[in-house]
Amino acid sequence: MSYLAVQGLSIQFGGLKAVDDVSFEVAQGEVFTIIGPNGAGKTTVFNMISRLYTPTAGRIVFKDEDITRLPVQLVAARGIARTFQNIELFENASTLDNLLVGRHRHSSTSLVEDILFSGRVRRQELEHREAVERVIELLRLQHCRDMLISGLPYGVRKVIELGRALAIGPELLLLDEPSSGLNVEETDDMAHWILDIRRRLGITVLMVEHDMSLVSRVSDRVLALNYGKIMAVGTAQEVQTHPDVVAAYLGT
Ligand SMILES: Nc1ncnc2c1ncn2[C@@H]1O[C@H](COP(=O)(O)OP(=O)(O)OP(=O)(O)O)[C@@H](O)[C@H]1O
Q1: pLDDT tens-digit profile of 135-180?
Q2: Are 67 and 119 within one domain?
Q3: Closest CA to ligand 1's atom 6
Q4: 114 and 232: one domain?
Q5: ipTM score for this prediction
Q6: Measured from the CA of 53, which atom of ligand 1 is nearest?
Q7: pTM (2 d.p.)
Q8: What positions does the domain ABC transporter occupy (predicted)?
């Protein structure tokens, strides 16, 4: 049984085949990275796995369940969380509140239950708080726990965005360009967090990334896309030196 299997995945926007017959498998515990030039279809693959887009053809199977058409609100309940290329945090709320929002979105109690069974709700609230405090400790965010996002540097916000995805307790984490907008030192820290998350929490990571130093440092395997099609799959070294990949990046 494969952990995550993407089979013949395709999506078309008007006349454009943004992703064209893409198949790959990700093993449990692996850091698997998708690279490729701008417009290659990387984020679109993510958007299909996280169910923001429905494929035109193909299947996505996660732990033996076909999730190709799973309603988007059930994705987190299956243990899949994602971050976005552009940070999507609430600017005028604290770090703590942003992480709690990540949890509440996936809360299992309804409004009626909230009113009728306040004990259960209180227990769940406690669980949310404990989970969020664990993430704050793991990512060493204590210094900005109660600070508003709007006053925090970009590099810290990127780590909080990662924390918000972790707060829901995922087993598969989709990271869309975790290093975008970060300087060399912050990118180095991000590599550390990704490896730490995998090592300490056993989370499987599927990542889209441009920075090849980060890709080489954290990835077990790399897949290169171009014009929606797979060019190469292998180690970072193998893929980076593949003639089709070299040609695509040089624009030849
Ligand atoms: N909702 C959409 N409607 C129309 N076209 C889209 C849509 N989403 C993506 N595309 C197109 O699909 C192609 C692939 O886009 P995608 O964002 O997946 O590329 P990418 O590899 O992630 O690029 P980048 O590295 O620049 O983020 C592009 O040509 C893009 O314009």
Answers
A1: 999 999 999 999 999 999 999 999 999 999 999 899 999 999 999 9
A2: no
A3: 13
A4: no
A5: 0.96
A6: 1
A7: 0.91
A8: 4-252
